[in-house]
Amino acid sequence: MADQRFSQSQSLQQQQTIAPQMQQSLELLQSPTLELRHMVQRELDINPVLDDETEEISLEETAQENHDEDFDKEFAELSQMDQEWRDYLKESRASNQRSDADERHQFMMDSLVETQTLQEHLLEQLSVADVETDQRKLVELLIGNIDDNGFLQLDLEDFAMDMAIPFDDLERAQLLIQTFEPKGVGASDLRECLLIQLDQNGKHHSLEYRIIDKYLDDLAKHRFPQIAKKTGVAVDQISAAAEAIARLDPKPGSDYTTGTNAYVTPDVIVEQVGDEWKVQMVNEQIPRLRISNSYKDLMAQSGSGGKGEVREYIREKIRAGKFLIRSIHQRQQTIENIANQIVKRQVDFFEHGASKLHPMNMAQIAEIVEVHETTVSRAVSGKYMKTPWGVFEMKYFFTTGYETESGETMSNTSVKKALAEIVAEEDHKKPLSDAALVKKLEEKGLKIARRTVAKYRDELHILPSHMRKQY
Question: How far apart are CA 142 and CA 136, in angstroms?
Fold first, then answer.
């Protein structure tokens, strides 16, 4: 008889379930001010117990005049309003089945009228995308890490390990962003950016696509004969393809950081008062909400039957309204607390400018503010701080760094600034090689590897020395 063995195994599976109200609270924290205003307006449209104090409307007087209004009629009106909203949602879901091209074209047209940051433009497109809640949060997180040129400033593998997020989920989130307008947004590098544009233009199998995919370095150095030999295509065809490639956009997000779109309303203003730096929140752009007294009065009335249904309906709306008001207050308080800690740790920046920006990470701020690191990430995403040196996105102040020979810490942002200044001052007829740039930085007390200099140069979109040479 075969040996029977019994084994017991235990499998532990962690599943994150977030209550709808908590999801709303996180969404409020993550959203830039413009998106927050849209969200609040939607709540005003669907929740009849909410009033906007900034509007010169006195619903209390109306309520007093109609204090004895029949409850059944009130319930019927409220129920109709609720049903109309449900119908609207149903129609909205149906309209979302329209082609992505139509939706994004409309967003592009809207952006010509309304001043938007790139992040706000991407978040608007996300708002109509068919995405599950958990995945939506990851997309929002990545959007918050896209720079002004439209490139994702994260190494997905490192970020996945640091934040304990499945890499495949992050990759899907990035791929979704890459379907948004402007074409090429969300790419990790120039090659990927250009390939995305060609793919969306229906040129996945084109010569241009093949050249960028396999021979981008040769293309950058105008080695058309070498590309022709490798591809088996005539040189004149390579030249024509190069001209077509030149019409692609190497910085798809730049239209949102120049001209009228460059203006953003800061969420925080930092000013020096005496010997201290003070943080002031900008609240004017956020509607001031309150629970309407007219519905409080309705709740105070006594009755039975259908009137009890009215009270339960109103009670639920009041509960939802109060939670929204508390969440907005908590959002502002969290941003203010983080802003205060940024100012405290970056005093040298506020007094002397970007060259004195110190290394700082979100975990350090999270510990002091007593929130999770991801909360800090959400809170600074798409939020701006006005300083004596200009308006900066709050995530700008979070950066890794180096220690100089004198023992002083220096952020990588400051190092990049120093690198850009060295290149700007070089002899354009004899541009500095990466090795020479390393020596120049060493003269400033910064010992940085050559490969790091090359990496920073690429991130600053500074060409190699042989391509910077002017004759």
Answer: 10
Does any domain span residue 453? yes
Q: First and final CA of the chain: distance in angstroms?
A: 90
Among 251, 274, 303, the domain-final residue is 251
Is the model's pLDDT at 382 over the cut of 90?
no
User: What is the SS3 assignment for 277?
Assistant: strand
Phi, psi (rounded to 5 degrees) for 400: -80, 175
Inter-CA distances, 421 with 128, 408, 432, 460, Å: 43, 20, 12, 11
d(CA 220, CA 212): 10
Number of domains in the chain: 2
Beta strands in 194-287 (DSSP E): 268-273, 276-281
Among the candidates 251, 273, 295, a domain finishes at: 251
Specify burial of residue 249 (Cβ count, 10 A radius: 0-12, 13-18, 19+): middle
Q: Is residue 413, in this structure, part of any structural domain at all?
A: yes
- Read off the CATH number of the domain in which 440 is found: 1.10.10.60
Q: Is residue 215 part of a domain?
A: yes
Q: What is the pTM of this model?
A: 0.48
Which of 25-34, 129-138, 294-303, 408-417 has the weakest average pLDDT? Answer: 294-303
Burial class for 345, CB neighbours closer than 10 Å (0-12, 13-18, 19+): middle
Residue 243 lies in a domain: yes
Domain carrying residue 222: 190-251
